[in-house]
Amino acid sequence: MLTGKQKRYLRSQAHHLNAIFQVGKTGVNENMIQQIDDVLEKRELIKISVLQNCLEDKEEVAQTLTEATSANLVQVIGNTIVLYRESSEDKRIELPN
């Protein structure tokens, strides 16, 4: 579980990132979960955009992705979800205590 200070730090790091996944009309599927899981291992911090035509609520999408990838939900703002998971092999982000 992330502290408030750690979430604030991760939000500042994610501010300049572009969304690299888009959740559309079909919603979240196994293939997308696997790809997000792989990218989280490489990058640790990613943004995901929920498109207007997505039938699921953005909060539900965030919850599904968080549980399926064992990631931490940093933020849901507008239609953008920010996820963080510490990499087991290639740790890049040093969280404050």
Automatic annotation (TrEMBL):
Alphabetized UniProt keyword annotations: RNA-binding
Domain CRM residues, every copy: 1-96
Pfam families attached to this UniProt entry: CRS1_YhbY
Gene3D superfamilies: YhbY-like
SMART domains listed in its UniProt record: CRS1_YhbY (SM01103)
InterPro entries the UniProt entry points to: RNA-binding_CRM (IPR001890), RNA-binding_domain (IPR051925), RNA-binding_YhbY (IPR017924), YhbY-like_sf (IPR035920)
Protein name: RNA-binding protein
Organism: Aquibacillus albus
Phylogenetic classification of the source organism: Bacteria, Bacillati, Bacillota, Bacilli, Bacillales
